Amino acid sequence: MTDCLAPAKLNLFLHITGRRPDGYHALQSVFQLVGWGDTLHFARRDDGQIRLLTPLPDVDPETDLTVRAARLLQTYRGSHYGVDIVVEKRIPMGAGLGGGSSDAATTLLALNQLWELGESRETLQGLGLKLGADVPFFVYGRNAFAEGVGELLQPVQTPEAWFLIVTPPVHASTAEIFSSPHLTRSTKAITIADFPDASSGASAAEIYGFGWNDMQAAVEKQYAMVAEARVSLSAFAPARMSGSGASVFAAFASEHAAREAQAALQAQSSSASWFSIVAPGMANHPL
Which of 9, 64, 197, 214 is flagged as catalytic? Predict the structure, then answer.
């Protein structure tokens, strides 16, 4: 059996620059990989069957992104192999951390090896886009400046950091937030040269303080607990929301500093229902 980490991601900023003719929103963001996430286990089958051995309660396994990714790759290549999939789920659903997309990308990358297909990363990115806008980033496999719906990617370098990620018990619907009257869609587009890349000597404060998340205000209007979590975390370091929420995060220079903040935050009575994790930033996907 092959064991693989499906890492979470953070949106260091998320600007919405308009709406495309096809109805999708035009985005600009920097995606940051995090050294924590779901763990997926794959066992190759010779009979062509694709089975998810850990289905979520009340969810048809055929709709799971890991199964859809496996079937998409199997059909694309006409492979006679199948797979048994076990998912150890850690990334909360509806948290803006890319859990389902990361699982799908890890499935594509792992099965490309397990089934001995030899497909290029670019081909897998194209297949991944059929599953979700964030999937190509996880297949791309390194921190990136993203445009389009998130599929146009250029590499960026971010400094070493430890992140405290806090997730209140809220499931923020991306579709719902994108239709919110509080969502702005007119942020001026930038270029990758505007982002303070670490390779040019930019400081951590410049990089992690760059820009904002255009979805944050809309989410906080609808889910007061997200605003409460962000404000509470901001007492220790500048904090913002990732993706369409509900997770908020802050960057720290060391694991010790992040864990100190986590302990102090957990001591607050208001945070009793919040999930939190301390994890390092990661430069490359494990696969």
Answer: 9
Told to judge if 134 belongs to the known catalytic residues of this protein, a careful annotator would answer: yes
- pLDDT at 271 (0 to 100): 85
Q: What does the pLDDT read at residue 175? A: 73
9 is catalytic: yes
Catalytic pick among 38, 103, 134, 214: 134
Average pLDDT over residues 92-121: 96
| Homologous superfamily of the 162-193+203-282 domain (CATH) | GHMP kinase, C-terminal domain (3.30.70.890)
| Domain parsing of the chain, residue ranges | 2-155, 162-193+203-282
Structural class in CATH, domain 2-155: alpha beta
Q: Which residue has the tokens 């670490």?
A: 198
> For residue range 162-174, what is the model confidence (pLDDT) as tens digits?
999 999 998 877 7
